[in-house]
């Protein structure tokens, strides 16, 4: 009698530890890293579970037995193991940034800083990550009791020469080099482009809004006047602006003296302070500017759910 899906799932869970196998999500970074992490840290256990399933179904369900055997063999492909490690390393760092961006106390300043650090990590990983991924993959290969050898490819790859060089392009003979060029480098380049685009967009916003991140540390009045004037221009459409830059400057200086004696006065804190004391009419420009600042989406991208600070206010 063929094994039911419940019995097949029990075989898998009996072999696994902390992490459950999950379907790859098209929307959430956290779900993506969870899917990869389960395989990354339990690859030998998953392999054993597949072999067990193949053995127990070889007489009752040939199709399931064959699929389990095939998957088990694919897990022992060193090319796959290296790609698994690389994907996990990248998704792990991106997920940290993604989760941080969705924190209730995150503002544009923190977002910009986090994305900047993420770009730095990816650039460094682009230069050194492939070698470190191979070292980690060798440890996983040892768990699976296989040789850490890249599979050869039958297709010929060529290295492009610089302009002016007349010799014929040399083919890439090393399977390891092919994986590095066609998988690792392409993946990192694509990821860097995506993260850099977000960083540049947020950095552009941050240039206009950064002086409002902490009212307790607003700049001296000459600089503050310029920041407020620039923000007024940014919020001007058809000669009409949401705020008056000169009045905003005076309001910030006044409100700073009323705030509690603490080092940080975030936009959320300032809005709550004004609302709780019914000071909206006294500080209308701050009230408007802070609300606009907090409804600027901090993460909007395909493959990831949009998140806006609007729900905080």
TrEMBL record:
It holds the Pfam family Dimer_Tnp_hAT. Residues 258-310 form the HAT C-terminal dimerisation domain. GO terms for molecular function: protein dimerization activity. PANTHER family: 52 KDA REPRESSOR OF THE INHIBITOR OF THE PROTEIN KINASE-LIKE PROTEIN-RELATED (PTHR46289), DUF4371 DOMAIN-CONTAINING PROTEIN (PTHR46289:SF14). This is HAT C-terminal dimerisation domain-containing protein. It comes from Arctia plantaginis (Wood tiger moth).
């Amino acid at each position: 009698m063929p094994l039911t899906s419940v019995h097949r799932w029990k075989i898998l869970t009996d072999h696994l530890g902390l992490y459950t196998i999950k379907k790859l999500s098209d929307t959430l970074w956290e779900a993506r890293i969870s899917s990869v992490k389960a395989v990354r840290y339990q690859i030998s256990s998953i392999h054993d579970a597949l072999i067990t399933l193949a053995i127990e179904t070889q007489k009752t369900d040939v199709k399931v037995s064959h699929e389990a055997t095939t998957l088990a063999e694919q897990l022992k492909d060193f090319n796959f193991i290296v790609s698994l490690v690389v994907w996990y390393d990248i998704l792990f760092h991106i997920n940290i940034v993604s989760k941080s961006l969705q924190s209730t106390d995150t503002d544009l300043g923190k977002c910009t800083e986090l994305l900047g650090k993420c770009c730095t990590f990816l650039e460094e990983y682009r230069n050194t990550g492939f070698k470190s991924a191979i070292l980690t993959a060798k440890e996983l290969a040892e768990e699976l009791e296989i040789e850490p050898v890249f599979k050869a490819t039958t297709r010929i790859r060529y290295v492009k020469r610089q302009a002016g060089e007349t010799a014929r392009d040399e083919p890439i003979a090393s399977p390891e080099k092919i994986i590095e060029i066609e998988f690792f480098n392409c993946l990192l380049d694509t990821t860097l482009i995506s993260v850099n685009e977000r960083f540049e967009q947020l950095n552009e916003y941050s240039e206009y809004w950064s002086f409002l991140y902490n009212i307790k540390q607003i700049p001296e009045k000459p600089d503050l006047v310029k920041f407020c004037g620039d923000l007024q221009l940014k919020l001007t459409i058809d000669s009409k602006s949401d705020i008056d830059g000169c009045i905003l400057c005076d309001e910030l200086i006044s409100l700073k003296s009323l705030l509690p004696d603490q080092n940080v006065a975030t936009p959320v804190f300032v809005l709550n302070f004004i609302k709780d004391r019914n000071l909206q009419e006294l500080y209308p420009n701050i009230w408007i500017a802070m609300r606009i600042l907090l409804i600027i989406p901090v993460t909007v991208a395909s493959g990831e759910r949009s998140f806006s600070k609007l729900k905080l206010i």
